[in-house]
Amino acid sequence: MYGNDNYGVRRPDANSVISMDCCLCGEKMNVKRNVQGPRGFAAAMAGSKSSYDEFTCPNAQTDWHIHAGELTEYLTSIPSLRLKSIVNEELRLTLHNKKIPKGLDIVLAVDAV
Ligand SMILES: [Zn+2]
Predict the structure, then answer these.
(1) 100 — phi, psi (to 5°)?
(2) Tens digit of each residue's pLDDT (9 = 90 or more) over 41-87
(3) Strand, coil or helix: what is 85?
(4) Distance CA 86, CA 71 (A)
(5) Which residues surround ligand 1, an ion (CB under 5 A)?
(6) Cα–ligand 1 centroid distance for 59 (angstroms)
(7) What is the secondary structure of 4-56 as a DSSP string?
(8) Cα–Cα distance between 64 and 47 in angstroms, integer?
(9) What are phi and psi of 18, to 5 degrees?
(10) In this structure, are residues 88 and 68 in contact, taking their beta carbons and an 8 Å threshold?
(11) In angstroms, what is the span from residue 47 Cα to ligand 1's centroid?
């Protein structure tokens, strides 16, 4: 499994990094050292293998963490500042409460700004 490389999984060169915190939720990531093999889907398709460490966020498989990753990805494609503020608020609430907020929570939070 290659997972989502941007949110919750990192694969730096073997022994190049001592520890890592998740860029999404800030949790200290678990590490598996000296993994041999393709680093991702593209490398697997190309038959390329290397030695790397695999850092995984302990929250990576939770629904709220997956949701937060999707929101972060989505933010990069929104041209509207108003929509960005709504999505940002949903992201903030998701990470703060470690659960997916209900729609009304977000509307109330954004309108209170
Ligand atoms: Zn995380």
Answers:
(1) -75, 120
(2) 888 888 888 899 999 999 999 999 999 999 999 999 999 999 999 99
(3) helix
(4) 11
(5) 22, 24-25, 27, 57, 59
(6) 5
(7) -TTTTEE-PBTTS-S--B-TTT-PBPEEEEEEEE-SSHHHHHHT--EEEEEEE
(8) 34
(9) -80, -50
(10) no
(11) 29
Question: Angle at CA 68, nearest 5°, toward 6 and 102?
Answer: 165
Measured in Å, residue 104 CA sits from the centre of ligand 1 at: 25
Burial class (CB in 10 A: 0-12, 13-18, 19+), 68: buried
Q: Which residue has the tokens 């393709």?
A: 38
Q: What is residue 81's DSSP assignment? A: H
Distance separating alpha carbons of residues 86 and 17, to the nearest angstrom: 35
Where do the structural domains in the chain lie, given as residue ranges? 9-56, 63-111
**Tokens representing residue 30 in the block:** 């678990």
Q: In this predicted structure, what is the pLDDT of residue 108?
A: 67
49: which 2 tokens? 């293998």
pLDDT tens column, 16-40: 999 999 999 999 999 999 999 888 8
Residue appearing with tokens 């889907």: 41
